[in-house]
Fold these 3 entries.
Entry 1:
Amino acid sequence: MCAAAVVVVIGVTSSGPAGSSVTASVKTFLLDWQEQNYSAAAAMTTGRPLVVTDAMQGVYRQLGAQDLSLDMRSIAVRGGMARASFYASFDLGRGGLSWDYEGHFGLRRTAAGWRVVWSPSVIVPGLGRGDRLAVKTSLPSRGIVLDRQGLPLIPLSAAIEVGVIPDRVRAPLRTAERLAKVAGLAQSDADEMASQIEAAPPRSFDELIQFTPSAYGRLRKKLNRIPALRHHQVIKRLFDSSVPVVTGTVATETAKTLVEDGDPYLPGTTIGLSGLEQAFQGTLAGKPTTSVVVQTTAGKVIKVLHQWPGVRAFDLRTTISAGVQQAANAAISGVGLSAAIIAVDADNGQILAVSRHTEHGAPVVSPLDGQYQPGQAFTIASSVALLGATPLKADTRVSCPKSNPVGGQPFANVPAEPNLGAEPRFSDVFSHACSTAFAVLSYDLTSRELTGTAQELGIGGVPWKLPVPSFPGKMSSPGANQAQLAADTIGSGSIVVSPLAMALMAGAIDSGSWHAPKLVTMPSASTSSPKLSRRIVRQLQNLMWITVRSGAAKVAYQPGSPLYGQVGSAPLPGHHHLRAIWFVGYRGKVAFAVVVFARSAAFTPAVQIAGQFAAGLPRS
């Protein structure tokens, strides 16, 4: 006759000596296993100690576990046999993933006491002889930043994958530690990498880290000293960009950001460090799918034990126009000065192109978030204010002396103006960017009229927010300070702007109203200012056409589709020997700003770039 089954639940003591002794054996086994005292746990089983020890230790390594918690659940005893269940929780260390499952095993009463009947399924249900566990992580291919036509802004380029053939690695942890040290990773990353090696199919190339070709070239000698490492060159859309100012840069597993933030090591990881790649990291990278699997020694998956579904990566479409960007890149290439071009659609503020060149040893021009004085290019705004507040017209006679004082402060023309005569027309002083004339004309403006006009044209007015750093410009109210009002009128006072802000100002003159900038085509509310006076817009357009036709920007003049613009020159803060040289204008519906850092105050380098850019624009 069989003995009655005895069930033991956590916190409940069984009746009789058989129940209490089996409970003690289960507790001892689970506690030794949890504390990674594998030899002691093996002694509580019917298996060969070395085999059991290797199996239990191997599972911990194969999972790359950081911790293990075991909890006894119930025990059923029937004669000399028993069955125990338990709850296991493996901390996988991959961003907080925890694999929890219920297990069970049989016990047999022996002369030495109750012992766990050994088989690999004691560790994990369904695990058989020759099987191994692994944590498989599948990363979605990174999404691509696209132009407005849906074509990639990130071209295909080379990447170097460094990895191993797992069964040729004698000491996975040692190999991982040496590789992590060369790559600048942490010890925890080395531990994860070692687990990756042990879990990977033994005879296939297992990628551990990817580098740019230049980064690999710098580290090649050190990497070659690590036994068993191999490298493959692959082609991916990762590291190059036709619009790097906008797209930003991408890094991989070795990114300093990941290491410093303590993010878990994961082969194939990509992270945006700047630009849209950083702003839309979640969208572009997606999230990995992670699975705990049972596999053969050859790496064939037998069973999926648990899975954390990932999130697919998505592409990101921008407003960049390939044709306009190509024209900008061509106009600025080979320039022997630091320079930038930014172009927008005058009708809606969409950013069409951003390009820059940085001369060796010279400061970098920041087209989106730079803060520079606009110089006489700001007379676009000043003229809108003057034409609206006074009876001023294009043929009104004004003076353009070499220098004159306003509000007790001397003003001079920089660069020096040609001799325009004793009383040139207003169209002449505008088209030749005569600072002294606008300084005197500031007497006809109030502080409110100038700042109000600037706000209508986007400077200190309607705020905007792009997904990348940008600067809308700002100016302080001159109040009753006539000298400051005069300085602001000629763009050399309190006003600071970005090239983007000035391109949008030119777009307002082209379309008749100012529009906030846009860089991605995701749905968003359209922001714009009230329409400008048609009369004033027509007058400004004529003045900007004269500037190119016969004024300070005539070097950019070309027959055909007209180019409109204004020039400017202002000191570059922090660089007393350099000036910011501007051309701000539009052709067709493409409004743009050119900024060049030069030692000379002459407008020529910015005007030449503007002419080349306008000539290269695609015909609509």
Entry 2:
Amino acid sequence: MKSTLHFVIFFCLSFVLSSAAIDVFAWGGDVTLPVVSGNKYSNARISVAYDGTIYYGRIFSTVAGGSFISWEVLKSTDNGITFIPFSNGAVGGSSKCTALDIICAGENATDFAVYIARAYLDTVTTTASLYADKYNATGGYASTMVNESFSYSTSRGWSSLSFATDSRDPNPYSTPYAISLAATMASTYDSVIVWTGNDGGTTIHRRSLFGTPGFLRNVSASIGSIAMGVTGYGRLGVTWDDYANSGDDWGVIETMFLYPDDGTNSQYPGPYTLAAGVAQFRRPCIVMSENTAGGTGPGTSDFRLIVSAEWNGDNGVWGAVYDSILLKIPSYNFTRLSIWTPSGNSTQCHGVFDPLYNNFLFTYCNDVSNSISYVIKFMNSPQMDYPIFFNSNFRDINTASSTFMAPRVDMSVSRGMAAFAWNDNYNSLFDAEWSVIVGVRENSADAHDLNIFPNPASEITNISCTADASQKVSLFVMDITGRVLLSREVELNAGSNSIQLSVNALAAGNYFIQLKGATINSTLKLVVTK
């Protein structure tokens, strides 16, 4: 039976010529992935392997608004500069592709695999099919995780797919890691189906999780990991939106918790309805903490998880932050994940957990300002505290997109930085915290080429940057809870600048250095060693 078991900082500033950095947190230009003339791309997905290889999934049609006739996964081994084919599949005739998701798992060459799920719909035979397969690093087929079809009663079939894994910090009973797939199935009754197992896809348990006479559109899954002294099994969290009528724009958000090894109910499984059944939410995304190191605080002695969703109240993205799901019915507090603007309309939020720094990473787009933001919520920060806005807009294009941009984020553990994918005017775009294209943003008075070196540092570190014009910025030093340890104003000169920082008084650990001004809002990560 499964049991649930006052920092004082001396700070010196000087302006000198910048030096070479050992690593950079500097945004480059947007990378457009290879395209075939006439193809209309959608459904961008991104996952980064243990060795830094970037995998990018997408589907496409040949007519704007037409049926998606093919899917493909590309990969980049040069940090996103170039992408080459990895795997693909096409449908024809009366069939179309309705959903796609990908995920990398395995933290070494022996355990590594790429999982690809895709759903099809045949409008003549009225058959909806779902396939999820395991591939090796070269794109070779390894095994089948899901192969399932049904005769549909609506034209939606399998409408949403979401992979989850605890690969980056596996639960004690995961060998080598758990892998799960959640899907929404449109039939006489719409359903949420889950396939899961804890042996890397060899053994898969199927579970019909939830059914409704209403309409389900979006599903999201995440696996949380925790220390063995609490429970060895971790948790699989699954969330979805439920609409009373097919034409409704807003619905309710529901969440359930399972054991990821076999899909059975955990002690308090749910489903739990967000905001007492208020039908004013949509497009949820669940992110669970992964921390098997033990200790105290949210996510170490229990799980911390965040369910993000769009809220009709102000057209913004909000997060429901849960701090305990093991020994009591989960409760939560709301925090705002999107930057508030009078026009609102922040949409399409997606998040992942970063086990290196124990942070929640989120990205979303604003359909009014045509921007895409990147924010971080610290695992141990107070539930209702706002996140740190690392980059208020990493999208370089100024024109509006004719399609949902729907950004996605994943963590490159080998680099300690995040990578992003999104749809833009039927093209597939990529950007990252590291500079992937030499050059600077056009029409910007921003500071760029931000470097911090050495990093890790034990006594002194230097922050270098290039400013397009003289400007005054605020500099903040923060710990991993978001607590500001030091703040002061810094004058940047036009051209190269260097800021020298003594870290002698800092304890060993992870810190954030934020530069914020009228045209700059950049954050660097610093590791202090003793």
Entry 3:
Amino acid sequence: MLVLFLHRKPGNFIFSFPLIRLNETFGEIHAESGLIQKTRDIFAPGGHLARTLNLESRPEQDRMAIRTAEAFSADRPLFFEAGTGVGKSLAYLIPALIQATDRERQCIVSTKTIALQEQIQRKDLPICRTLFEKVPTLSKYGNFKAALLVGRANYLCGTRLARALAAKADLFPGPKQIHLENILDWSRLTVTGLRHEISPSPPHEVWEWVNSDSTSCNRRNCSPANCFFQRARDDLRKAQIIIVNHSLLFALINAGLHPGPEVKGVLLSDDFVVLDEAHTVAQVATQHFGQRITSYGLDRLLKRIFNPRNRYGLLGRLGTPSDRNEVERAITAAQAFFTGIGEHVLGQRSIVRVHAQGWFEASLLPCLERLVKRLGVIVQDTENESLGEEIHDLRARLVANCGGLEDCLNVAQADSVYWVERSGSKGQVISLRTAPIDVAPYLREGLFRRSTAVLLTSATLGARRDVASFATTLGAESAQTGSVSSPFDFAHNMAVYIATDAPAPSRHSGQLDIEFLADAVAYCTLAFSGGSLVLFTSYADMREVATRNRSLYAEAGRELLIQGSGPSRTQLTSSFAHAGNASLYGTDSFWVGVDVPGPSLSQVIVTRLPFENPSHPIQEARSEWIRRQGGSPFLRLTLPDAVVKFRQGIGRLIRNKTDRGTITILDSRILYKPYGREFLALLPHQNFTRFKRADRDWAFQPLEAASAS
């Protein structure tokens, strides 16, 4: 997925470059100190936020805002951990808007979750605007513009839609043409042109012919009047704040979309960046600084060129019978290639690491390379410019697939890990994957050496609240760091219970005693009047516990919500919040980002300390790398990652000053293993209660009292 930006024209940039370099003049120093002073005036006790909007003054928020303003002024990286309730969004948005307006720069705000993006758009930015409009000395900042940046594949392109309609008899089987007509009807009503607005959603094989994700969608063919992406691109250029998600941000950085080697800025010239929910940066960046070639994606790409089954595709109108036969041979070769990997490399396993060149026969590459050559000839020979552009675009994608396949088959990069995996509802999709063993060099070049301010913030940046070590692992050794604790009173508002008789995970299967787990989870959730978030580390454990407990919830008239049961993560969280006393079973993604204040989330149950699977290729390769350096993979990798995730999980409970509730831990290793003290030290207080499942009186009064106190 690719997004193009409207960068400042080189001429304009050259004109403005001397101004950017005047940081040492008195005028610039005055402007920078002005940002810091304005930030002090806004956040200080009795400042503009408190007087104008009647918002509570928080010393922690004040300290974060000042440190943020200093980093923005000096164009330097800052890592800042801010506990739950600090109000970190306002602490960086207000200085960012002042800096962007005064210096005519753009601030990119990146988040991991849609929920935080929506909070920034619908709650935090309106607060900023109201503040600026009500304070006369800040009124000029009230006219700021914000834009949401999404992948261009999500936008409808009017030019490509018109072309697809004209060629629909060649591109689509009859039934698929209905979806094209639906898109046409929707295009006359939509304001944004974003695919998620269409109901029912069109199939991928139709949408990819009309979206903006093509070289044919450009300023020569399209304009803001007929293309939603070009319209969004214009809005983007005018915005002071650009909101994006981590996944797209790192995809763009990996694609090399920075403003230039000698130009400061991460994506746009002279931009500065905020990464909220920054504890996920390493994980997301690792996924995007590697390769992913899938059987499904390659098959779909080839069949867009020509589908031999129904005779549709671009070569239905272009090329020769020989060209169409070449596509058919490539499709057959690709199917045989991925089937062979599934049978001979994966077998019954879902994931296998590959180590050396020649791990599988490269018979597919010659077929694809011949097709690439033929498509190049067709592009040169065709007189139909629009079809020629589409062929050129598909050829470029095929070239990228060839390069990725060659890299994967040759295990070409010594600093990367390679593996194959099986996915899809029936395990029918085979993927070739690569990822960097150490992501720090990529982040160092893509973020921290761009001569601009980069703020990374989260409630949990360090495993042991060691923010400096976290910065070093991401390649920002010289970054400034800081932290403030949560202002919430956890000692009075949170009870903690730890099971002393929970069986340790099996040394062979890695699974907990399911009978104990199912019984304990059912009892803890049903003995509690509010809602419970139950966090698992294994899908298999979660599904088995859900199967065993489903009837108990039905008998009690309590709703059971399960990740992977159909509804999206957002839908499940919304249903959980509205139910009031439901139990929500979730795994990996539910340990972070769930924000449900009030009694609907009155208990968080940690079924198992969240250690990552050490046999995953990335964990395995990183462990080997640490051993070669003379270190301990458990102490340097496994334990710190688990501690950060544990902090995130228990942080789901208390989301505002009035929240009360209980943390229940069903893993006795936290008490009996030497590493357990690392987790115990991160509990908001040490006044926890030990319990045994056999003692049925333990739960009722203590838990209810904690909920009602």
